[in-house]
Specification:
By secondary structure, this protein is an alpha/beta fold. The chain has 20 helices and 21 strands. Helix 1 links the parallel strand 1 and strand 2. It starts with 7 loop residues before the first strand and ends with a strand.
Length: 618
């Protein structure tokens, strides 16, 4: 149990929403505050963002709407005199501020204990040279790189490493100031930009085209350590994780490869001495089993929010409990799947797809790469890759009907579009497959794993099969059912069978009527949740056509209210509507209604499974 005399804790938020640091830190901070409240600890929050749930009444005991900077944080410490401080729940902003205060001996001056990962371990992961040295001690391979502090050294390092190289600003967020260089001319431009964001710049050997795989790892102070979730980027290395489609669990790796990376993850995190939750990213060559550790985030990240929602394992809540001194076996019910010491077992797949709003800006390049441009993301849940990718592309809210059937997307130069990815890359793959490109050719141009391309080809092939029918009544039950299993919407089926255009409402309803007449209906499945007080009462649900049956019964005779979430963050609609949704479900509960939330944004507090009576992640 908790083994310290912590009575008052200061938690640093992440401030204003920005690309690479958005609503996911409202979610992780809210979870941490909830964990502290459970322990009867007085909480003080510094966060100037008024649109967040964590700055609402009743979440923290005391809120300071002040900048998360060393000057203001010291003033609050001086006034509030907290026993402990948490740095891992406010993204890079909170981490950088905490490191600065530690170096200035402010925590020492006021007798404040840093809860969770020690600051030295944070510095070890953030400073590239120290990080490489630490991992060399245990013979773990890292990408060849050199940290430099001026442009001349950057040019020398690039010549020694050999082009192509990637330039990255240290201590920066969302790949800010990073990019690939094939020659010195490109390097000079990028280095100048990188130095405007950070005093230290990393010049690394490029492994562009390798796979990018990441693991979420949890460790307590007694060295109990588990990997909670493994995720794989659909796009190869070279595209920032925040810009990539991500699937969990990993799909294209063998069991041996997954275990190998899992063992490496626990080995690294134990050696670095992280206490709580962290994220480790790998570049991986699946053909040779060669790997490089790219980085370790010694804090909650956007991937952590995604992994929490993907697995039902509340990483921020568990990390906060660990920071207070709990061990993994003391969180949740030991010996059951609801224990935090048990890695979740998934019988489903999830897919994260980013949303870009690049069309709002004149003259902005639509190319995506190592620096983040996406403003939001969605998560879809299902039983096959075909289902989750089609479902997910509809969720993005940019007028797409799925992987196929988007008649308004046309590409002048497919080879160019495939080789130099833009925000429409996934649809260029659909066009290429429809034009007869082989999986090998697309793989050559994109470096996307053939496993994914094969699954996407299944969708294109099934579209061709549906197009051989001309009437809805002629569709055999097994063909219609399989179309739904592969993620086709009623709209897509109507478009391919009836060859209709326009608003298609009549045709859409005809497919729905036929489907219902054949009793082809979605199943409602429940995701097991971890460390919840009453796991049998937490209803974290999704719908799929790949199986049958309902894991929950409908509220037939009870007053219930459905609250519709706002989906992916976009410019003009972001965390403020999460605040609205959370307040709506909480008010409904207080008034005696059963609250039902429908939302599919993994960054939000509203998609936290114990915020409402039922959460449909759809």
């Amino acid at each position: 149990m908790k083994e310290n005399n912590i009575k008052k804790v200061l938690l640093l938020g992440s401030g204003a929403l920005k690309i690479g640091e958005a609503g996911e830190f409202d979610y992780s901070g809210s979870q941490a505050l909830k964990a502290l409240k459970e322990e009867g600890i007085y909480t003080v929050l510094i966060n100037p963002n008024i649109a967040t749930v964590q700055t609402s009444e009743g979440v923290a005991d005391q809120i300071y709407f002040l900048p998360v900077t060393p000057y203001f944080v010291e003033k609050v410490i001086e006034k509030e005199r907290p026993d402990g401080i948490m740095l891992a729940f406010g993204g890079q902003t909170a981490l950088n501020c905490g490191v600065s205060l530690y170096k200035d001996k402010i925590f020492e001056k006021y007798g404040v204990t840093v809860l969770g990962t020690p600051v030295q371990a944070i510095i070890d992961t953030e400073d590239r040279e120290i990080f490489v040295q630490k991992l060399n001690e245990i013979d773990v391979k890292t990408i060849k790189s050199e940290a430099v502090e001026n442009a001349a050294d950057a040019r020398r390092a690039a010549r020694e490493l050999g082009y192509p190289v990637i330039v990255r600003a240290a201590y920066a967020l969302g790949g800010l100031g990073s990019g690939f260089c094939d020659n010195e001319e490109e390097l000079n431009v990028l280095v100048e930009k990188a130095f405007s964001f950070s005093p230290q710049v990393l010049v690394e050997k490029s492994l562009k085209g390798w796979k990018e795989v990441e693991y979420e790892v949890v460790r307590d102070r007694f060295d109990n350590c588990i990997t909670v979730c493994n995720m794989e980027n659909f796009d190869p290395l070279g595209i920032h994780t925040g810009e990539s489609i991500v699937v969990a669990p990993t799909c294209s790796l063998t069991e041996e490869q997954v275990t190998m990376l899992q063992d490496l993850s626990t080995k690294c995190i134990r050696h670095l001495g992280i206490v709580g939750e962290c994220n480790i990213q790998y570049a991986f060559n699946a053909e040779t089993n060669d790997y490089r550790v790219i980085e370790v985030n010694a804090r909650l990240s956007r991937s952590s929010a995604l992994a929490s929602k993907a697995t039902g394992f509340p990483l921020a809540f568990v990390a906060a409990k660990i920071a207070l001194g709990y061990t993994l076996d003391q969180i949740g019910e030991m010996g059951t799947p609801n224990s935090a010491y048990e890695a979740p077992q998934l019988d489903y797949l999830i897919c994260k797809i980013p949303r870009w709003d690049l069309t709002k800006f004149a003259g902005v390049s639509r190319q995506i790469g190592s620096s983040m441009k996406s403003v939001g993301e969605i998560m879809s849940i299902g039983r096959s890759f075909e289902e989750i990718i089609q479902k997910g592309l509809r969720m993005i809210g940019q007028g797409m009907h799925g992987f196929v059937g988007n008649d308004h997307t046309k590409f002048e130069n497919l080879d160019e579009e495939l080789a130099n990815p833009t925000d429409l890359r996934i649809f260029s793959i659909a066009s290429a497959l429809e034009e007869g490109y082989s999986i090998e050719r697309i793989h050559e141009l994109t470096k996307i794993d053939p496993w994914f391309l094969g699954k996407l080809k299944n969708i294109v092939d099934y579209k061709a099969k549906l197009s051989t029918y001309n009437k809805i009544e002629d569709l055999p039950e097994d063909v219609l059912r399989q179309a739904k299993v592969l993620g086709f919407s009623d709209f897509q089926i109507a478009r391919f069978v009836l060859k209709a255009s326009g608003n298609m409402e009549k045709e859409n309803l005809a497919v729905r009527a036929r489907r219902k007449a054949l009793n082809i209906l979605p199943a409602v499945k429940r995701i097991n949740t971890v460390a919840s007080e009453h796991p049998e009462l937490t209803n974290y649900l999704y719908m799929t056509y790949a199986t049958t049956g309902y894991d929950v019964n409908y509220y037939k005779n009870e007053k219930s209210v459905v609250v519709l979430g706002s989906g992916a963050y976009r410019i003009g609609s972001s965390v403020e509507f999460d605040w609205c949704s959370v307040n709506a479900v909480q008010t409904a509960r207080k008034l005696g209604y059963k609250s039902i939330m429908i939302n599919y944004n993994p960054e939000t507090v509203s998609t936290d499974y114990d915020m409402c009576d039922r959460l449909y992640f759809d």
